[in-house]
Amino acid sequence: MALAASPKDGGRGLERDMVVTAALQLLDEVGFNGLTQRRLAERLNVKAAALYWHFENKQDLIDAVAERIMLTEFKHDPSQATDWRSLLTTVAHVHRRALMRYRDGAEVMAHANLRNHTMFEGLESLLKVLREQGFTAPQAMHSFFAIIRFTLGCVFEEQADPHPKSATPAERRQRITEMAKDYPTVAQGIADTMAGKGRDYMFECGLRIILDGIAQQIEKPLDPAHNLA
To answer: Cα 169 from chain centroid?
Structure first.
């Protein structure tokens, strides 16, 4: 599909969806820091000023890109969830998959100000389901944000990891052996994690800890003096 607009129309003929699609392609090539309106305009064969027909500034563009990333993946109907735990698990998995789909997806989301009405409709449905299953209003919102922020942090760390992803198992074991000389407890923890399933395993372990904590809050709330709900 051609993503270039005719130079004759000054960019007015650009479709908003076309611009967002081009921005996502550029994001995969140059990363978040390289995603500029100038480069995007060059990709679309228009002047940078032409983008202002759809986006007031770079923040507006980032918001649109983030919304596309989320809405492409979040098609799950919360009302179909059999219980709150499976619902929040699905939210975590879908959110992670959405962020991992694009280079620096987590950084885009961290800088976005999501305000699309479709996003709020989905959140409204999710919170209603949680309320129906025994959550107070604050518990529902806190639980949702705990899952979303945990997922965002995990993906952010993974995408920004400076360690070479091409390191062989032997090289990783050697680093752990060297670490164990001064930090045996840390080295043992890393070794145990590596014995699992890598980052997926770590994500699932952390998610389970959060879900277990939510369950404890729902089943046995803390003393009111310390309970935000």
So the answer is: 28
pLDDT of 10 reads: 42
Q: Which of 126, 38, 37 is nearest to 74 (CA)?
A: 126
Of all residues in the chain, what percent carry a pLDDT higher than 70? 81
Mean pLDDT of 145-171: 83
Distance CA 100, CA 95 (A): 9
Residue 136: CB atoms within 10 A of its CB come to 16
pTM for this model (two decimals): 0.78
Distance CA 47, CA 130 (A): 48
Q: Is the pLDDT of residue 27 over 50?
A: yes
- What number of other Cβ atoms are within 10 A of residue 32's Cβ? 18
Helix (H, G, I), strand (E, B) or coil at 149: helix
Q: What is the pLDDT of residue 102?
A: 94
* Spatial CA neighbour of 70 closest among 46, 43, 33, 99: 99
The two three-digit tokens of residue 198, written as one number: 């890598």
CA angle 82, 155, 161 (to 5 degrees): 155
Arithmetic mean of pLDDT, 26-40: 93
C-alpha 189/C-alpha 118 separation (Å) is 42
Quote the distance between the C-alpha of residue 74 and its chain's center. Answer: 11
**Cα 210 from Cα 228, distance rounded (Å):** 16
Do 119 and 71 contact (CB within 8 A), yes or no?
Answer: yes
